[in-house]
């Protein structure tokens, strides 16, 4: 038995030597070869799909054609915006260009009248649609030009990959995770934590926090990724004395979140399927909590257990859960035509009552197809035919209705 254990130990050592760093992993996963099939009139399809024509832009800006033409000419001359893309007689403006124009035209912003919010998507049951729900809401929020908010997704699941499919990695990117930031002062000798090296080179913690998010295909959507080495958060926490355990749990809320809110308006946290110090740290900072559940028997039972544990966990936090202002349960990946799922949804309605989102995210093959490409259903066009038109419509319509209800609750809660 001793030999077997020693063999396992050596295997782990050898695997660790071959382990990629976060930087290497991201550069490998995100190295996309764009072919002619991925281009529309010479533009990357992911960018093209979110472009607007001139008529749509003028309507969004709430201006007239003459005023638009005059101010656009000024912006081009000043180098504020580049040339549009032409599609036949149409002038197309990318999502980034639209946001530049909105800034130049003085379009109202979310933060003018609303406070920033941290929304956690959590359930200890794996496979409940946490990541897909997070990305659907984040993408919907970023695409909502009327809301005009800066959006961030924080992946807190060490085994997850929320948002990686749409991340843009520059050569001078800072490769740190939220766990690296939170643990830096508690593991000064860990050479794998780049935060301490950056601090030693003159960067401030505030700068590191602001710069660690990766940009995406949408101008106002950013992502802070996670990595398997983030699991060390749990071990580090349990090695600390009680006073430093509390300091670590409060760091996200007291140190990191205020800095992030200077840069971002709406922050979504994709949580790991576990009751651990990583989760507790995020819960200590959370202002809104969404609990997704697929309305199936075992998922309902697991979510029941999660809700029971959640109430106890919140009461044990340093803040005793006082930061939390809102929570809702949401049915996702829901197939209404399935009798067992319909019955379980009715059970949810009876038990959760007014804390249940009445809008649901439907089951659709479109979610599986788009996830394989690192995109959401909102990032594709029906003409791409990744699934049947019916399945595409089911997915997109349900996400839009779900976001509409969520947005109404968000802006009511966040209004100043």
How is this structure best described in words?
The protein is α/β, with parallel strands linked by helices and 416 residues long. Helices cover 48% and strands 13% of the residues. The strands form three sheets. A nine-stranded mixed sheet has the order 8-9-10-7-11-6-12-13-14, with helices on both faces. Strands 3-5-4 form a three-stranded antiparallel sheet. A hairpin with a 2-residue loop joins strand 1 (39-40) and strand 2 (43-44). The protein is globular.
Produce the secondary structure layout.
Layout: H1 2-18, H2 22-29, E1 39-40, E2 43-44, H3 45-48, E3 52-53, H4 54-61, H5 65-77, E4 85-87, E5 90-93, H6 95-104, E6 117-121, H7 130-143, E7 151-155, E8 167-168, H8 178-183, H9 194-200, H10 205-211, E9 214-216, E10 221-224, H11 232-239, H12 242-263, E11 266-270, H13 277-285, E12 288-293, H14 297-316, E13 326-334, H15 339-352, E14 361-362, H16 365-371, H17 389-414
Parallel strand pairs: 6-11, 6-12, 7-10, 7-11, 12-13, 13-14
Antiparallel strand pairs: 1-2, 3-5, 4-5, 8-9, 9-10
